[in-house]
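Ticket #4471: structure export looks truncated?
Reporter: QA, pipeline team
Priority: medium

Steps to reproduce: submit the single chain below to the structure queue and open the exported record.
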Amino acid sequence: MFVLEYGTVVVSKQWGGESHVLKQLLHGDCFGEMALLDLFPRSASVMAVEASSVIEFNHATLLKLYQYNLETVHHYSNEYWP
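Actual output as written to the record:
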């Protein structure tokens, strides 16, 4: 998963032989979260449209964050899976 630190990126998908922009992402937006949930090939492409920087969170990094702040994890777990 990536969090856009600064810049602008577009999320696009190919169909019908053409690339279609699905969404433009700005500072603070995240993408690639599906890769943390499943092992399937990516479902879309992301491309920077200006100078951009991202922060990458992999499984190990998120686990460390969860362990550090278990109260937050518990809150969101109960919110989505009561």
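Status: closed, not a bug. The export was complete when the record was re-opened. Leaving a note from the reviewer for reference: The two ends are 25 Å apart (CA to CA).
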